[in-house]
Amino acid sequence: MENSAKKIAEYLLQIKAIKLQPSNPFTWASGWKSPIYCDNRKTLSFPEVRSYIRDSFAEIVKLRYPDAQLIAGVATGAIAHGVLVAEKLGLPFIYVRSEAKEHGLGNQIEGYFEKGQKVVVIEDLISTGGSSLGAVKALREAGCDLLGMAAIFTYEFKKAEDGFVSAKCELHTLSNYTALISTAAGSGYVSTKDVETLKQWRMDPSSWGLNR
Questions:
Q1: Is position 212 within any domain?
Q2: Which one, of 101, 161, 173, 93, lies nearest residue 133 by Cα?
Q3: What is the pLDDT of residues 153-193, one digit of tens each?
Q4: Does any domain span residue 26?
Q5: Number of domains the chain contains
Q6: In whole angstroms, what is the distance from residue 125 CA to residue 77 CA?
Q7: CATH at residue 149
Q8: Does residue 127 belong to any structural domain of this protein?
Q9: Is the peptide bond preceding residue 76 cis, with omega within 30 degrees of 0?
Q10: DSSP 3-state of 150
Q11: Which residue range is the domain that position 170 belongs to?
């Protein structure tokens, strides 16, 4: 998995799905200042990359959850990836909205499923874990037997790690912040000074932003 994590990190950097700008930080929707921005939707535009991600997800499901009966994607970023995985494995697919619709049938979960079905959730990105665990909660409340979640990338924030432990939800990621920084440093994508900045940011991103 370590080699796979580095391969995914290489892909994300090559196609600029992840951008690193320690000297010119981005502003997240939360208001945090961040030296990194991740947009995994870009992976869908590159057949080689999306196929590698699909096959890596499928391998996790086959090895970890061989009795999976259903694949769920988290809207909107992981819907396409979830469909690809479900197609690869020959399993049905559903997706989970951040909240129930305010019109029509008022669904939060879209697609056909039955109570008790064993489901694996596909996610594109884990930051604080809030939206991902919201999907987990919705599926459980709907009667699904949640086996675990697999995501493309995680920032490895402690808040997210604690959240998944508290929710008793297994999380497997294809790549992570540690592998990304190691890959970026090894390829000369960022300087030694920038590596230290990136490491400091991950330890306390909200405070790092306030001190800029």
A1: no
A2: 161
A3: 999 999 999 999 999 999 999 999 999 999 999 988 888 88
A4: yes
A5: 1
A6: 8
A7: 3.40.50.2020
A8: yes
A9: yes
A10: strand
A11: 2-207
